[in-house]
Amino acid sequence: MSRQIIAIDIRATSIVGVLLTTGLKTNVIEGCAEIPLVTSEANQDPLLNALTELRRQLAFDHAGAVIGLPADHALFRTISVPFNEDKKIRQILPFELEPTLPVPVDDLVIDYQKAWEGESTGLLTIAIERRELENIMATMTEARIAPQLVVPGDFASALCLTHHDQGLPEHALLLNVGLTKTTLFTLVNGKIALARCLASDVGTEAGVEMLTLKIRQTLTAFADRQPNGFAPTTVYLNGPALDDEAAAARLIQAMEIPSQTVDLRTMVHKLDMAETTQWRPCVMNGALALALVEAEGRNCPNFHRTRSVFKNYWTTYRPYVRGPAIVLGIVLLLGMGGVLLENHLLQKRLDHIHHRMEEIFAATFPGSRRVGDALNQMKSEIRGAQGGNIDAGQAIPQVRTVDILQQLSTSIPKELDVLFNRLVLGSDDLTVAGETTGFNVVDEVKNHLEQKGLFKQVTIASANMDRSGNKVRFSLKLEL
């Protein structure tokens, strides 16, 4: 599902807007415009006038807004702390910054971004006066704009450069050159390590020389504080002052390091532009970077956020949740794996039982075709087989077990020492086993049983002396 983002980059003399439509396959720059900040007689607020005109030109009524504040209105500081948990950092940040700020810390809105991590965590902090932020937000409300994100100006450009430039060197320098101010960013190992605002005027040779002197002084001081120094191999140039090709040429010539201007649009993959859009890279890069920060969900310092309350909490408490969440995920995966394995084994066992039932049925009734449940059909087949083998005109002799036991008891004289310990009754015969004192007693038992009319024939199946030599174990088969 696509959505629209209007990015508004507020500068000292103008605002720049870029309307970006995001989608699953590609992003499209639908329009862009630069509106000067001019005070009119009807309304003395130049920002409100410019926002009204920008809305008229780009028609962004249903777009989410991202605002970039003037970089020269922000206070940049670099500090280090002995821990890296976001919750602890936000608790101590005002106290760490207070000695270095020219205004009371309570009058500022402060955020930060991590510059490096190791034995200590380096923080690049950005602050803006609370009253100025409130005035800008009031103007946005009057202009019927509800910003989802409010970030320091030019910072988004540096952030997008570190993520989208595939050839970014280990040490690099980004200069966002405005008409009166230049924002300097040092980039170390793909992270923003330093930000400074310098007064500048690149419209003259003297102004360019003065700017380059300030840049060298800043870099020298920064390199002295770095364990491995700082030696940029590339200078990236951006900003509205470089829209003047002559000014850009003067600055490139004055820099002693290989320099190149930035066109962020060409660095971003899957980014298209409407045919009617008049693209001016040095002017529009900042607003495009703001839109990309929102579209890509980049972690950027911000002074006002309504994008996602859940994401704010996630950013703060992510280090505390990540470990238990991983453990919980592993436990759930193992539990699910155990359930699937047990289900597989049970299904395999059930399939084996069904297969055995089929084999038994086929072996018992080779001429029958099984239909339905095997057990029920087997019972039906057995009943049918029994019914088919019985002659209805003949009577079936029925012999009760109690009658057999009585016959055995009355047939053996009391003076014979005989002990019966096993009796197996079949359909038409009987097998009894026991023990006695001698082989002659076994013959007497056989003779007494044959004299009774219940048993047709009595056969001695076995007669053996036990290990002690005192008893004879015997087995008799009696035909009913």
TrEMBL record:
<keyword id="KW-0472">Membrane</keyword>
<dbReference type="InterPro" id="IPR050696">
    <property type="entry name" value="FtsA/MreB"/>
</dbReference>
<keyword id="KW-1133">Transmembrane helix</keyword>
<dbReference type="GO" id="GO:0015627">
    <property type="term" value="C:type II protein secretion system complex"/>
</dbReference>
<dbReference type="GO" id="GO:0009276">
    <property type="term" value="C:Gram-negative-bacterium-type cell wall"/>
</dbReference>
<feature type="transmembrane region" description="Helical">
    <location>
        <begin position="320"/>
        <end position="341"/>
    </location>
</feature>
<dbReference type="InterPro" id="IPR043129">
    <property type="entry name" value="ATPase_NBD"/>
</dbReference>
<keyword id="KW-0812">Transmembrane</keyword>
<dbReference type="GO" id="GO:0015628">
    <property type="term" value="P:protein secretion by the type II secretion system"/>
</dbReference>
<protein>
    <submittedName>
        <fullName>Type II secretion system protein GspL</fullName>
    </submittedName>
</protein>
<dbReference type="InterPro" id="IPR007812">
    <property type="entry name" value="T2SS_protein-GspL"/>
</dbReference>
